[in-house]
Write a structure and sequence with these properties.
Mean pLDDT: 83
Order of helices and strands: HH
Oligomer: single chain
Number of helices: 2
Strand content: under 5%
Low-confidence stretches: none
Length: 66
């Protein structure tokens, strides 16, 4: 039960980071001054956090019944 709560908290943090990366890559007009490499890095980190957060949220513990 404790490990499930840690997984969910980690998933929430990762999904929040992914959301902030999406906002940073699209919403702020002052980001036009940064390079394309930095924009790509923000998008990749956001996508990785979203995938990992979703995995942690949906992962079942070894004791969970199917």
């Amino acid at each position: 039960m404790v490990s499930m709560n840690r997984q969910r908290i980690g998933a929430i943090v990762l999904l929040l980071i992914a959301f902030l990366a999406l906002v940073a890559s699209r919403a702020f007009p002052f980001l036009d001054d940064i390079s394309g490499v930095a924009e790509t890095a923000i998008a990749l980190v956001g996508a990785a956090c979203a995938l990992l957060g979703t995995y942690l949220w949906l992962r079942k513990t070894p004791t969970a019944k199917p």
